């Protein structure tokens, strides 16, 4: 009997994270054998799909949930971190475009200003203070603020037409924002991986993960569709990445690694209103974010987004949060129940007990009629007409539930890398900002799992991300230079 092939890396999930990691590994170790396993019949069909997310190039230019206020003080730490990470993304994407490994940028990224819009004295005061803090930072130096309705009309006419003249409003505006089609990007990057020798298996589900005594992982799979439906197989790998979006928690639990014990996942489903009416779309050329409702999960901040998918512009408004027990859009209602273990029951119970307002918010969202939901569109765009818009179901998001440093159960925003101590398996849990910061997160994951290769990989990282390791926000001249260099390649707005 011949020994089975042992892949250097098996990547579970055909989304932007696996696509990005495959790109990096091809750069770092061109001779490595890579296999990508996707349960659906095509890549980028879950959270990476263009209509399953808002396509915001998350750089904290407009998202208020990255600048929380506590005890009267606004914390901009998260905003600075995310913007730094997004600059890593822009550098890597620019390099790949220059090399011809990504196509004409308009096929996956387009310039769209980022705005924040608020109403009411308290919110206007908050936005002004936030602006003053961020404006002083080099990465946010182009941000503008106005509480003048005429100026806001210049930025986004649809926000102001039909609004009461005495309504107190304010907005910030950053011309250098972007809209990203992460589905298209994923497909391009995975095709590059195939061209470089990677094997991709579609319609194939990972059903179990086991590590042999010699450290090699056995990845058990079952074909879900096609002529070989039901066929089972085992793939062997030296390293496994679990980039299965909402499905990552269940798979990491199957692996039996200690590091995932105590983690849980809270699923949030969502809907958006969408319009493709050219007349409506032409009146709004921005991504505009507002403040979240009391009790809303962080990923449910209301926003009106210009989208560019396959060269066509559209508008999305939402999200409207919902709840079911699936961890994937094309998942099972048993997903959440399968994730419950003795070690994480206290986490689930603790998060539930301390997030009663979230439960109330979700109940309200589930009970809301379509007309009530559309009233929120009108809060942004007063003259919006119901007949121009339709509801679409967005991707499923799973927020991380864990214990913090003090042992307190928390519902965490953002993403978290979970890796076994020996570096042979790692997975990514959580959601936004996710795809926008994939290059930085995947570089960090690779270095964490292969620390012995950091010296050899450093020049290769800098070949992709020239200023990697530098905090651009600490150097105003460098921040402007890098942003303008990447803007020129990617076709985005320059900093004057």
TrEMBL record:
InterPro entries reported for this sequence: FAD/NAD-bd_sf, MQO
Enzyme Commission number, as recorded: 1.1.5.4
One Pfam family of this chain: Mqo
Top-level division of the source organism's lineage: Bacteria
Reaction it catalyzes: (S)-malate + a quinone = a quinol + oxaloacetate
EC top class, as a word: oxidoreductase
Cofactor(s) recorded in Swiss-Prot or TrEMBL: FAD
HAMAP family from the UniProt entry: MQO (MF_00212)
Name of the protein this chain belongs to: Probable malate:quinone oxidoreductase
Species of provenance: Gulosibacter molinativorax
């Amino acid at each position: 009997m011949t020994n089975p092939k042992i892949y250097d890396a098996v990547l579970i999930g055909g989304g932007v994270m696996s696509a990005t990691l495959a790109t990096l590994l091809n750069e770092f170790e061109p001779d490595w054998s890579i296999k990508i396993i996707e349960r659906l019949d095509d890549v980028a069909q879950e959270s990476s799909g263009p209509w399953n997310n808002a396509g915001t190039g998350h750089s904290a230019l407009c998202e208020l949930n990255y600048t929380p206020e506590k005890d009267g003080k606004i914390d901009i730490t998260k905003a600075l971190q995310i913007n730094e990470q997004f600059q890593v993304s822009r550098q890597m994407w620019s390099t790949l475009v220059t090399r011809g490994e990504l196509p004409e940028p308009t096929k996956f990224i387009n310039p769209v200003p980022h705005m924040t819009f608020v109403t009411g004295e308290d919110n206007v005061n908050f936005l002004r203070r936030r602006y003053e803090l961020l404006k002083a930072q080099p990465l946010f130096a182009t941000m503008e603020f106005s509480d003048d309705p005429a100026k806001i009309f210049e930025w986004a006419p649809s926000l102001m037409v039909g609004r009461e003249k005495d309504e107190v409003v304010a907005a910030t505006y950053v011309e250098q924002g972007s809209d990203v089609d992460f589905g298209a990007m994923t497909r391009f990057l995975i095709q590059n991986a195939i061209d470089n020798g990677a094997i991709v298996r579609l319609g194939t589900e990972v059903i179990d993960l086991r590590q042999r005594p010699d450290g090699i992982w056995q990845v058990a799979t079952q074909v879900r569709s096609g002529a070989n439906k039901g066929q089972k197989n085992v793939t062997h790998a030296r390293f496994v990445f679990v980039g299965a979006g909402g499905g990552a928690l269940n798979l990491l639990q199957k692996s039996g690694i200690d590091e995932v014990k105590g983690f849980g996942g809270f699923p949030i489903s969502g809907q958006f209103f969408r319009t493709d009416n050219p007349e409506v779309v032409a009146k709004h050329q921005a991504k505009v974010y507002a403040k979240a409702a009391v009790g809303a999960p962080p990923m449910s901040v209301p926003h009106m987004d210009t989208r560019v998918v396959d060269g066509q512009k559209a508008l999305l408004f939402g999200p409207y949060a919902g709840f079911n027990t699936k961890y994937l859009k094309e998942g099972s209602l048993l997903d959440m129940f399968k994730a419950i273990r003795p070690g994480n029951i206290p986490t689930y119970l603790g998060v539930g007990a301390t997030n009663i307002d979230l439960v109330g918010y979700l109940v309200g969202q589930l009970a809301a009629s379509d007309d009530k939901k559309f009233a929120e569109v009108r809060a942004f765009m007063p003259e919006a007409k119901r007949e121009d818009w339709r509801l679409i179901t967005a991707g499923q998001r799973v927020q991380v539930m864990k214990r913090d440093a003090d042992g307190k159960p928390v519902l965490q925003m953002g993403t978290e890398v979970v890796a076994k101590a020996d570096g042979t398996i790692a997975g990514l849990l959580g959601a936004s900002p996710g795809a926008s910061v994939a290059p930085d997160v995947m570089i960090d994951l690779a270095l964490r799992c292969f620390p012995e290769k950091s010296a050899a990989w450093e020049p290769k990282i800098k070949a992709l991300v020239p200023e990697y390791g530098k905090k651009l926000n600490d150097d105003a001249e460098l921040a402007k230079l890098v942003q303008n260099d990447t803007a020129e390649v990617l076709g985005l707005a320059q900093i004057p």
